[in-house]
Amino acid sequence: MSFSKDFLWGGATAANQCEGGWNEGGKGLSTNDVIPHGKDRFPIIKGDMIVSAPDADHYYPAHLGIDFYHHYKEDIAMMAEMGFKCFRMSINWTRIFPNGDEEKPNEEGIAFYDSVFDECLKYGIEPLVSIVHFDAPMHLVDTIGSWKSRKMIDYFVRYATVLFERFGHKVKYWLTINEINMLIALPFMAAGIRFEEGEDRKKVTYQAAHHELVASALATKIGHELAPNAMIGCMLAAGNYYPYSCRPEDVWESICRDRDNYFFIDVQSRGEYPAFALKQMEREGIMPVMEPGDLAILKENTVDFVTFSYYASRCVSTDPEIAGKQTAGNIFASTKNPYLKRSEWGWQIDPLGLRVTLNTLYDRYQKPVFIVENGLGAKDTIEEDGSINDDYRIDYLRAHIQAMDDAVNLDGVPLMGYLPWGCIDLVSAGTGEMSKRYGMIYVDREDDGSGTFERRKKKSFDWYKHVIETDGAEL
Ligand code: BG6
């Protein structure tokens, strides 16, 4: 079996983890510019430790990233050589609006992305653009508290409007907000939220979520008006929760955990808050303040497709002894599933879980779905002859492509494309490491910031090239 000719094979990145050039081209200070590598990273990305500016005591991997800012031509040429039909990237908000509240955009920032898109289109690569991927202007964090404030909606809408006006003729595929459900786990990294002492965290988080949802719906509306051929999607950090056992309590708990995540894209895709979320917010006294007209905005501006990241399934048990045996996952830790192997970072490896996720999302939303992140973070070794034999990565990708083949050809899921994460090595969002590599293209940069930025093909480069050439028939 294989995939249709118009299937969008490619890869995914995000500005916050690869672009660099943090103080070039008129760019302003962004949340990711103040997130260091090291022990303070986690308290900062969770919003517990308050920072406003980088300092001399920390190393900030996003400042230079992998220097995509200066290497994009070379990088896109390598992606073209692999046969990419689609390239996911994000725009750095502060390259377009350095402080976030200006009236007019920074033309130097516009020119940079114009050139990146031209480079993609030159090779017939469709850009897929995340308007926000773990990014917010620090000026707005400091002055209005980022998404805590309703004012953020206006700034986001102004930013999105400029993107559709200026790039709508070049970019067909858009995502409003990357992994919107990460707001729960990583309030600062995902949404620029820092908590003051005594603040009701849950209330603040769900109010911010409402602002993001209204902003996303308004951006979808404007995108549809300004770029009528564009498709605009939502984005979920996915991976179903499995009940550890068939004990009814475990099954129910797995449903509840999944709902915590679906909550957001239920709104973006179906246009209304699901009943369970309304009941829960009412019960817990965290119902967001809504303005008249908000519900109509959500209802009338749903997304065209549903995108998601998938690295692993998750597992949950209500038995404290079993639940105590946790393993790491994409930020959300999971009960260890005894049937699965794990990556070097503890993330469970479950290709069939991708088929489960694809089917669940299509059953739930009945809209085209798109895998915009998947992959294995692993340490790579350069052999004496300069080669990098990343068979472990090939094995992971092969098994996941097989699972998506089943979802498409056996289950009939309308899958638009497959964009493995970090097709070129980049900084890990969770840990800030470079040594957690996902790419088919190696980048000479280390956890401490040393390295030349030289690019090098891994074994997976030629393997993936062949997969694309054969439309997935030969894995
Ligand atoms: C997703 C994010 O959560 O997972 C990416 O959208 C991130 O930004 C990816 O890089 C992998 O996570 P990590 O922590 O290994 O970089």
Explain this structure.
The protein has 475 residues and is α/β, with parallel strands linked by helices. The chain has one domain (8-469): TIM Barrel. Helices cover 40% and strands 13% of the residues. The protein contains 17 helices and 16 strands. The protein has helices spanning 15-18, 41-45, 68-82, 93-96, 107-122, 138-144, 151-167, 182-185, 187-191, 201-226, 248-270, 275-283, 294-300, 320-323, 351-365, 391-409, 459-469, and strands at residues 8-12, 86-90, 126-132, 173-177, 231-237, 241-243, 305-309, 314-316, 326-327, 334-335, 341-342, 348-349, 369-373, 415-418, 441-443, 455-457. The chain has an eight-stranded parallel β-barrel with strand order 1-2-3-4-5-7-13-14, surrounded by five helices. α16 links the parallel β13 and β14 (415-418). α7 runs parallel beside α10 (201-226) and α10 crosses α13. It starts with 7 loop residues before the first strand and ends in a 6-residue tail after the last helix. The protein binds 6-O-phosphono-beta-D-glucopyranose. 6-O-phosphono-beta-D-glucopyranose binds at residues 14, 17, 134, 178-179, 237, 309, 330, 373, 377, 421, 428-431, 436.
Give a short summary of the structure.
The chain is an alpha/beta fold and 475 residues long. The protein has one domain (8-469): TIM Barrel (Alpha-Beta Barrel), CATH 3.20.20.80. 40% of the residues lie in helices and 13% in strands.
- What's the mean pLDDT score? 97
Small molecules in complex = 6-O-phosphono-beta-D-glucopyranose
User: What is the number of helices?
Assistant: 17
What value does the Rg take, in angstroms? 21 Å
The backbone outline, from C-alpha atoms, is globular
Number of strands: 16
Given this structure, which CATH class is correct?
Alpha Beta
Largest sheet: 8 strands, parallel, barrel
Helix content: 40-55%
* Spans of at least 5 consecutive residues with low confidence: none
What is the architecture at the second tier of CATH? Alpha-Beta Barrel
CATH superfamily: Glycosidases
